[in-house]
Design brief:
Blueprint: E1 8-10, E2 13-15, E3 18-22, H1 29-37, E4 42-46, H2 49-53, H3 60-65, E5 69-72, E6 80-81, E7 94-96, E8 100-101, E9 106-107, E10 121-124, H4 127-137, E11 143-146, H5 153-160, H6 162-172, E12 176-182, H7 188-192, E13 199-204, H8 208-214, E14 215-216, H9 221-233, E15 237-245, H10 251-265, E16 273-278, E17 280-282, H11 283-292, E18 303-306, E19 309-312, H12 315-326, E20 335-337
Parallel strand pairs: 3-4, 3-5, 5-10, 7-11, 11-12, 12-13, 13-15, 15-16, 16-20
Antiparallel strand pairs: 1-2, 6-7, 8-10, 9-14, 17-19, 18-19
Length: 338
């Protein structure tokens, strides 16, 4: 498991050095489950997670090397309207939420680095309140909900169990279409439980040279493709997210080979749809990340700010290259471009 890059295996499961727990959730069943799994961690009670997570002058990259977990209660702003920066796949009522803030992976381009002052992981254990909020939204309408934009729930599944809980909830809510974004190669989730038709698994894929350059600690392209193949064999709805498209020398050749490899390993008829989009983020986040990642190749290529969004100067050309390769294999109607 790639989560082991940050944790060590113990008899009880996985271990982070410290777990900070809000007093309000010390007796919550999810808290007990996590503490029981991470038995050797040092547990420290705190009043509010923000006092620890939002402290000024934290070193994000140093924290990434030795992550801690904070178990907390989400008290407000549980569900958000979908961002204009994100693909809505034609859904009018598009929302996103996250039980977890931050990620175990360490992708150079990740916007979370410019969003939060801390790299530590916040786990909101009160998942029942998330379900209550979705119940309210879906009383008289259908919604599209992405549950994994600010983390990778599938990677955290071994000790949170959140994804299984969301899937069980989705089985009971027919007004909900739920998207799970992931880079994980964890196959257990769909081997062990029944996945309903209103759940879409969206795998983020990029060429292996890009993964090696920018997506530290993530599963290889080959591992992800093998997991996707197993998922489609189980009859799951699988989306491919080629995002963010990153520039690299020999760009055209590398992305062509990547798309050929994708559809050679996963037949196009088994893919629900594909979305593509170039590297982009709001300019304020980009400034913060540039300070953190001064030596990253991200900022070595020509970029510009378009309507407050930081992206490549030739982003339209890059999208066209990828799109034209995709439509050799898959209907245009199933390719979404952002």
């Amino acid at each position: 498991m790639f989560i082991m890059m940050y944790c060590e295996r113990t008899k009880g499961g996985m271990r982070f050095s410290h777990i900070y727990v809000e007093k309000d959730v010390i007796d919550h069943p999810v808290t007990k489950k996590i503490l029981n799994t991470l038995k050797r961690s040092v547990v420290i009670e705190i009043e509010r997670y923000g006092d620890f997570f939002n402290r000024p002058k934290q070193n994000y990259l140093m924290q990434k090397k030795s992550l801690n977990i904070i178990l907390a209660k989400k008290r407000y702003d549980i569900i958000y309207e979908g961002s204009y920066m994100c693909e809505d796949f034609g859904n009018k009522d598009f929302y996103h939420t996250s039980n977890i803030l931050n990620c175990i992976y360490s992708c150079d381009y990740c916007y979370l680095q410019g969003m939060y002052p801390s790299a530590n992981i916040v786990v909101f254990v009160n998942i029942e309140d998330f379900f209550d909020e979705v119940d309210k939204l879906t009383q008289d309408r259908k919604i599209y909900l992405s549950i994994s934009y600010e983390t990778d729930l599938m990677a955290f599944e071994p000790f949170t169990g959140f994804l299984s809980m969301w899937i069980d909830y989705a089985k009971k809510n027919k007004n909900l279409t739920m998207e799970v974004r992931t880079k994980s190669a964890n196959v257990n989730i769909f081997e062990n439980i029944e996945i309903p038709d209103n759940v879409i698994f969206s795998w983020s894929l990029l060429p292996q040279p890009i993964i090696s350059m920018y997506e530290k600690l993530t599963p290889s392209l080959d591992m992800r493709l093998r997991t996707i193949k197993k998922a489609v064999e189980k009859g799951l709805k699988v989306r491919i997210s080629i995002e963010p498209i990153m520039y690299i020398e020999n760009f055209e050749e590398i992305y062509k080979d990547f798309i050929d490899m994708l559809f050679n390993k996963v037949p196009h008829q088994n893919i629900h749809d594909v979305n593509i989009g170039t590297f982009r983020m709001v300019k304020e986040q980009a400034k913060k990340i540039e300070k953190l990642r001064e030596t990253s190749p991200i900022f070595c290529y020509e970029t510009e700010i378009k309507n407050g969004i930081f992206t490549y100067k030739n982003d339209e050309y890059m999208k066209d290259v990828v799109y034209n390769e995709l439509v050799k294999y898959i209907d245009k109607e199933r390719v979404f471009v952002k």
